Amino acid sequence: MRHSAAPCSQAFVDNSAQTTVDLTLATTYVPGVRALVETLVLLTVVQIFLAADVASHSQVVTVAAAVLYTVRSLWHSNIVDASGCAVVVLVALTVNTWRVELEDGQILVHHSVDLVWMLVSLAILLHDVLPIPLLHAQVWMHTIVTAVFIAMHAFMALAFEDNFTQYLRSAGFVLLSVFWTYTSYLKMTPGSVTLHECLHRFVLMLLAEWYIALLFLILSMGGLLFRVMTFQPGSRLHTMCKPNVLSSKNSGGQATTTACSTPVQPPTVDADTQHQLKLALEARGLALGTKQRR
């Protein structure tokens, strides 16, 4: 039986296996572009149907969610969850539509909540690069904090926004999520970047006042650039290929095996272990020399 290994970017494996991300391939960035295009197309279609008054807002949102669910099930990417980002945008803008109908009161309190949330989101964004023990919280703590702020905004009124502002919010959220995802693959293992972690960091873009969201967009872009600058030159993932479960037949009828790589980081050896290995090698060399003289 003849075996051949294919590049990991060309391998198709089951969902349980981790995939690798090669940032040198142009095709790697297709899911990121798709996330932005899918979200903008979604907003355009929703606005057209609402302007034509062919259905109510809840009906349009329900149909759009069903379409996104189908698209995500059939064309899901392990790099960027494009349809997942679109669903988040759809839900957030629907909530904002309801918030417009609330009575506007305690504006100072609302702005204070948004500013505190912005600082918390920036802290979560930079928690892996800043040497501050308080920021190194568990993921479940990030989830709870984000859920609390989202729930608070259900009781906070929002001024009416035109379509252009909604497009800017949506594009900003998707761009930040995509940028963070790809830059995280420089340091983190594939499969460790998920949609809910994007929500921890950037969902404020969709719910806060537009001027606070704009300020957050600028600060987040600076934070992402800072994360990239703090990565070590050799921190990029170097992978090794090992056999996987996929096998097929080539044009000659011979069986081939497609391999997909799993990130394997080189082991670290401390100074004491290195010294012991050196002594062991020297002793082995002396023993071999004595045996040869005999």
Description:
The chain is mainly alpha-helical and 294 residues long. It has one domain (21-230). The chain has helices at 30-52, 57-74, 82-100, 107-125, 139-153, 163-184, 195-202, 204-207, 210-230, 271-293; strands spanning 239-249, 255-263. A two-stranded antiparallel ribbon has the order 1-2. Strand 1 (239-249) and strand 2 (255-263) form a beta hairpin. Helix 6 runs parallel beside helix 9 (210-230). 26% of the residues are buried. Mean pLDDT is 75; it is low at 1-18, 233-251 and 255-267.
Note the topology.
Blueprint: H1 30-52, H2 57-74, H3 82-100, H4 107-125, H5 139-153, H6 163-184, H7 195-202, H8 204-207, H9 210-230, E1 239-249, E2 255-263, H10 271-293
Antiparallel strand pairs: 1-2
Q: Oligomer, anyone?
A: single chain
Tally of domains: 1
Alpha carbon gap, first and last residue = 47 Å
- The share of residues in helices is 55-70%
- The value of Rg in angstroms is 25 Å
Key attributes of the depicted protein:
294 residues; mainly alpha; two-stranded antiparallel sheet; 10 helices; elongated; disordered N terminus
How would you concisely characterize the structure shown here?
With 294 residues, this protein is mainly alpha-helical.
